Amino acid sequence: MKNTVEIRWHGRGGQGAKTAALLLADVAFKTGKYVQGFPEYGPERMGAPITAYNRISEDPITVHSNIYEPRFVAVVDDSLLESIDVTAGLAKDGAIIINTAKPMEEIRPLLRGYEGQVTLIDARAISIEALGKNFPNSPMLAAVVAVSGVMEKDAFLSEMRASFLHKFAKKPEVIDGNMKALELAFDAV
Amino acid sequence: MAIRERLSGNEAVAYAIKQINPDVMPAFPITPSTEIPQYVATYIANGEIDTEFIHVESEHSAMSATLGACAAGARALTATSSCGMALMWEELYVAASDRLPIVLALVNRALTGPININADHSDSMGARDSGWIQIYAESNQEVYDNFLQAFPIAEHKDVQLPIMICQDGFITSHGVENILLVEDDLVKEFVGERNPEHYLLNPNEKMSVGPYAVSNYYMETKKAQREAMNNAKRVILEMAERFEKMTGRKYGFFEEYCMDDAEYAVVIIGSAAGTCKAAIDEIRQTTGKKVGLLKIRVFRPFPEEEIALALKDMKAIAILDRSEMFSATSGPLGAEVRAALYGVKSQAEVVNYFYGLGGRDITVDDFKVVYDKLEKIAETGEITDMYDYIGLRSR
Questions:
Q1: ipTM of this model?
Q2: CATH 3.40.50.920, chain B: domain bounds
């Protein structure tokens, strides 16, 4: 467990937090790690708060519980900050990555006294710049990888390109936009 | 060389089905097993396998069609969960008494009341008396490996029984983990072809399947089923040995983790066993306390003598059940393990815990508390209740 990085994702149904967690598991797997990516299932509605998780380790992972003391937390929707204690159990030497257009002084007070690193990223703006649409999960994924350091930038980007080539085989026109979103986000944090 | 992959439990089962390329798959979707027929349907649509997929109007029909296909001589299977399995209830018994080697990919989920879609063993535990072989998995790797062994066990001439390959809903079915896949040609060789001795489509042998059995026949049929179930014990071990030769991965009726010198044991089924292993590693590292785990893989046939021998010298044992049966003393696993221990006159203190009902999470810390309690029970010999709960809210 000691060598395992644990990450918790908060989002709303339909925003792709679960997909982002599965993609992170995917790319980490490709760099030779042991991985877990799993969602916590509740009532499945668009817009309802959802949680997803990652474990990434050099060693085989046997634990099958949810994550209560994550090293990193990713929040895909800042409207969750008021209703959900997103920093619950978050390690002080860890970090929280939040998708928001708001400045730090508006976000900090919502974090219930969390003293560790807070990284804000405007994933919506990045997505609209790169893709013309609001798909915050790609930029959030890049931000989480950059902040957590679970992978090097070059390895991450080349594995993601390979994933997108497969995932978007039928609509290759979105691949470059997604790659641009990843790069912009990686460099923004 | 094994193929290194990362798959969800549902993907792993669907991949095993693709490698086996069975003849017929009737199915009706129900979460969390829905993805299995979905993926298989995609393989068929892509021309990767030539399985006949039958779209049925309910699970009752899904199992009925599977029965028909299997009786005709085909290799047939289906997938379901929870209430879907409940709607198959009548046919579960028919499959077993007609000695049809059907495989059911069961993704364990609570039975409704109150409505719940999460991991829980009440569906398969309710069907434990139906005459099906039941094999459970801790991880995606195990459910894949178990699935590859399913047809060879079920179709063995001394067995001829249906088999359900169970995994925990969402926890493994929807969780992506590392997995080692077996090459297609090795799978084909391992699973082989179904060559039934008797089958309905054999023009040279007229037969009837599933006729009315008057009192003069019914009891002998049940005795024959029991003999087949007893034979399954031997065949399950034989297939595990063959599987180990192919993959190096060892399976038995159950897995013993740190049991060589253990004084305190947890007995459990399914994905939470992995969480228990992490607790054991931590406890042994930090305190040196002799804690161990017996993880049940095969629940039907129930390996009573083997379990009893593995547990009889423990100081204290916690048996963890992920389903209710509202008996006076325990859940289904608790009752059977207690009965097994009675047979060997074990002096171990035994307590039964309910955990994880309706998907309630169980953590490494929860298991540490269980082992602490076992130590106390062994010291004082005091068990306040025959059963208790893990993770139950006080109000």
A1: 0.94
A2: 254-389
pLDDT band (50, 70, 90) for residue B382: confident
Q: Which class in CATH covers the domain with range B3-247?
A: alpha beta
Q: What is the mean pLDDT of residues B272-298?
A: 98
Structure tokens at B304: 């009573």
Chains A, B: CB pairs < 8 Å: 65
DSSP code per residue over B100-133: ---EEEEEE-PPSSS---S--SHHHHHTTTSS-E
In terms of C-beta distances under 8 Å and separation of at least 24 residues, what long-range contacts does A150-155 make, across chains too?
A150/A5, A150/A24, A150/A28, A150/A33, A150/A56, A151/A27, A151/A28, A151/A31, A153/A186, A155/A31
Average pLDDT estimate for B233-249: 98
CA–CA separation, B377 vs B263, rounded Å? 12
pLDDT band at A45 (very low <50, low <70, confident <90, very high): confident
Element at B14 (helix H, strand E):
helix B9-20
User: What is the topology classification, in CATH, of domain B254-389?
Assistant: Rossmann fold (3.40.50)
Spatial separation of the C-alpha atoms in residues A171 and B4, rounded to whole Å: 28
Contact B73, B200 (CB under 8 A): yes
- How is domain A4-188 classified at the architecture level of CATH? 3-Layer(aba) Sandwich (3.40)
pLDDT for the residue numbered B186 = 98
Residue B349 has pLDDT above 70, yes or no: yes
Residue type, B11: E
Domain boundaries, chain A: 4-188
Query: A interface mutation test: which of B6, B107, B171 has the most A CBs within 10 A?
Result: B6
In sequence order, what DSSP letters do the residues of B36-67 get, joined into one string? HHHHHHHHHHTTS---EEEE-SSHHHHHHHHH
Chain B residue at shortest CA distance from A44: B117
Question: B116-168, pLDDT tens digit by residue?
Answer: 999 999 999 999 999 999 999 999 999 999 999 999 999 999 999 999 999 99
Using the Cβ of A32 and the Cβ atoms of chain B, whether some distance falls under 8 Å is answered with no
Distance of CA B80 to the CA centre of its chain: 13
Q: Does A43 touch chain B (CB under 8 A)?
A: no
Alpha-carbon distance B274 to nearest alpha carbon in chain A (angstroms): 4
Q: Is A68 on the interface with B (CB under 8 A)?
A: yes
* Under 8 Å between Cβ of A141 and A22: no
Q: DSSP strand E in B202-324: where?
A: 254-257, 264-269, 291-296, 298-300, 316-321
B282 interfacial to chain A (CB closer than 8 Å): yes
Beta strand pairing status for B176-181 and B3-8? antiparallel
Residues in B closer than 8 angstroms to A35, CB to CB, are 6, 176-178
What's the CA gap between B330 and B353, in Å, rounded?
Answer: 8
Strands B133-136 and B298-300: antiparallel
